[in-house]
């Protein structure tokens, strides 16, 4: 039986929207947004899209009109009643009313601010400028729109069965990964793959496959929309944009040196438990931990997001021990460039020594390498805060290939944070 | 949007029928049925299911009640108006009105006759007895029902995503085969996989994948229902049951020696072109060709269905040359135990020397080897005429592993047809 209504409905879409909900975004964006809304609501920021894979010429692949339609569609979204109810009523990490009523009222009225789009050298220059709590919510949908439009551009020329086999291959590949992960006792793993997913529907499939294949080992997804739809835990804490913007706002080198700790002091007040996770690498993990105030050692854990992950975890373990903490009671979250081999290796190395958890991103939700030549392979697209109140932001991280900011400012930050020699690690995604 | 009507409809099925149409069968069964209906309508035959893969204990796997439901459902089927119109109006091999009005009237009124079912030693004994033109139409649906019930029994315990990945793997495997076949210029290939298919829906998928992947190289399917549904050519000529029954009816050794030629003499009257295909191996290809009347050399081609296929084709080429025919104008159809490697090899060897065509069966529509352990691997199930008017039938073929019949009768047939030493070839499917 043909469902005529569905068919007519589908044919009447002006576009096939990529982002259909304001909460089709990472949970930590909302947590950070609430923190910013409370602590720095007046800050003006600029976010900018940066394609680190320059060989992928997005402006040649993606039609500007289609891109504008998708971005305009995102601007038309607002929080639905059901989404608002879910955010207000849900229990996150065992806590009710994670989102305060004043924040929810603001969020319910929110529409995303305008974007600025230009083509240059085969790439899109896409920037967002305005109030920090508003602009910051563009990051994930902007990335998801560009990633999926690129997928669609490549898929456009394929036949129906060629397409079906393409997805069959991707499904098989993911399932083989899941079957390998099944072998790891005590594994805890979450989906962190929203931003660079192949597509929304594919991410949704991946999450469900993880649910069925891994059971309790799969602890949740960073994507609020999918968490709501599939009735699973939304996962996340905080990201580099907080120390980056706080640091850009610092009036002196002394204030700059304290900025990353000020971020966590503000965070400390609001959150506890699994939300008290240190992200130490913005300006070098070693220096950050060396100079950290004692109250940070009581935090639940640490997230390793750049540099050599094993080395980062060893550094954290040494730090906890030096400060009199028991590492076996601490959580280490790995979230940078993970795939099955790396997960197995890190799990083997750290299981039992600390509590380990994995935030698996692009290679979970976009491993189409080699499936249409390499035309669908994931690539390194980010959307970052590049300035705050007119001043440039800086990120160093533990990998110089991930550093961002004007060279003079990078030099100043390296001096202030005492960052020495760093080992470069190739950035694939 | 949920289509409530479809859902209610699906939930209201008493069973999920495997065979939903009397023409969900091989085209050659209908061609042969018409010939039998005209030439031997009074013959009483017994068809019997034979599982040559005794390690697959069908009666342990498949519930008897479910099997009876499916077989009863087949007995409830009759030719629909649309199917009748398609058979009456279609052009097969360039000829209209392939099916005569008296046959169509009989077929429109037909219901399949009763079956007899018993369990013995972990196997089902399933037999059909009655008028030849009626009983013969049980062969394909009986096999398809048993094959699919076995698939369902294995799939029953699997999760939703495990299932999806299973099919993803099978799709990927078939597509890789299709991509290899794309490399063969001038290939002509058809689906002959109805009888031992994994399931109806899977065969339908395979046919569509062949259509998209191979284009004109894919010349059609033996399955009438799918040919009708997908608007492609129905393919087929004749099978062993004709010489087997004719031979069983022979009153003397002299009549027996002539029986296989009498079959083709009856066929010759009715058909021409692509339907004049010799199936020479029922009682040994060598002897059959040696003693064949001259009018058979003018036939369009030969089908190789047992023994070493390259050797069979070489025998045919030598025979045509010896009788003054030009082999390059003749068609050789390979249809026994084919998979991609064998197809490539035979194509390489015979392309240009004769017209070559392939009838690809079980390894097209049921290659689930290794996908659920080996619990879904295809196996060698056949449904054959075992007696006619109370006398046993005999098949020798070019492979002693495919021989059938009482030993004394096999010895007599070998003597009458001058069959010497034969090379045994393992029968997988």
Automatic annotation (TrEMBL), chains A, B:
Pathway: Cofactor biosynthesis; NAD(+) biosynthesis; nicotinate D-ribonucleotide from nicotinate: step 1/1. The modification Phosphohistidine is found at residue 240. It comes from the Bacteria. Transiently phosphorylated on a His residue during the reaction cycle. Phosphorylation strongly increases the affinity for substrates and increases the rate of nicotinate D-ribonucleotide production. Dephosphorylation regenerates the low-affinity form of the enzyme, leading to product release. Pfam families: NAPRTase, NAPRTase_N. It is an enzyme of class 6 (ligase). Its EC number is 6.3.4.21. Keywords: Glycosyltransferase, Ligase, Phosphoprotein, Pyridine nucleotide biosynthesis, Transferase. Residues 23-146 form the Nicotinate phosphoribosyltransferase N-terminal domain. The keyword Nuclease does not apply. This is Nicotinate phosphoribosyltransferase. It comes from Fuscovulum ytuae.
């Amino acid at each position: 039986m043909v469902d005529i209504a569905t068919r007519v409905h589908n044919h009447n879409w002006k576009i096939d929207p990529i982002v259909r909900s304001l909460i089709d975004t990472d949970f930590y964006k909302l947590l950070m947004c609430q923190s910013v809304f409370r602590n720095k609501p007046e800050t003006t920021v600029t976010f900018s899209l940066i394609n680190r894979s320059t060989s992928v010429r997005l402006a040649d692949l993606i039609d500007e009109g289609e891109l504008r339609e998708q971005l305009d569609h995102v601007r038309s979204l607002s929080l639905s009643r059901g989404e608002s109810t879910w955010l207000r009523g849900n229990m996150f990490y065992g806590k009710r009313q994670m989102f305060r009523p004043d924040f929810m009222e603001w969020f319910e009225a929110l529409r995303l601010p305008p974007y600025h789009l230009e083509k240059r050298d085969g790439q899109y220059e896409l920037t967002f400028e305005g109030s920090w709590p508003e602009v910051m919510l563009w990051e994930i949908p902007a990335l998801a729109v560009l990633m999926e439009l690129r997928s669609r551009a490549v898929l456009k020329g394929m036949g129906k069965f060629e397409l079906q086999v393409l997805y069959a291959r991707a499904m098989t590949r993911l399932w083989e990964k899941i079957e390998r992960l099944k072998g790891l006792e005590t594994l805890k793993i979450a989906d962190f793959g929203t931003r660079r997913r192949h597509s929304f529907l594919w991410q949704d499939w991946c999450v469900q496959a993880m649910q069925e294949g891994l059971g309790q080992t799969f602890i949740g997804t960073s994507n609020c929309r999918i968490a709501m739809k599939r009735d699973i835990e939304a996962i996340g804490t905080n990201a580099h944009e907080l120390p980056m913007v706080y640091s850009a706002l610092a009036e002196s080198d002394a204030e700059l040196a304290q900025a990353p700790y000020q971020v966590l002091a503000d965070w400390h007040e609001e959150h506890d438990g699994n939300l008290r996770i240190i992200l130490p690498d913005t300006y070098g993990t070693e220096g950050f931990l060396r100079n950290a105030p004692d109250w940070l050692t009581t935090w639940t854990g640490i997230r390793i997001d750049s540099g050599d992950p094993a080395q980062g975890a060893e550094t954290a373990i040494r730090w906890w021990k030096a400060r009199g903490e028991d590492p076996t009671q601490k959580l280490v979250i790995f979230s940078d460039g993970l795939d099955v081999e790396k997960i197995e290796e890190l799990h083997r190395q750290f299981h039992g020594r600390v509590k380990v958890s994995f935030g698996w991103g692009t290679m979970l939700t976009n491993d189409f390498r080699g499936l249409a030549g390499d035309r669908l392979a994931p690539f390194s697209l980010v959307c970052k805060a590049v300035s705050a109140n007119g001043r440039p932001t800086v990120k160093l991280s533990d990998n110089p290939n991930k550093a961002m900011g004007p060279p003079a400012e990078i030099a100043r930050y390296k001096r202030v944070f005492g960052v020495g020699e760093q080992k470069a690690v190739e950035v694939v995604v």
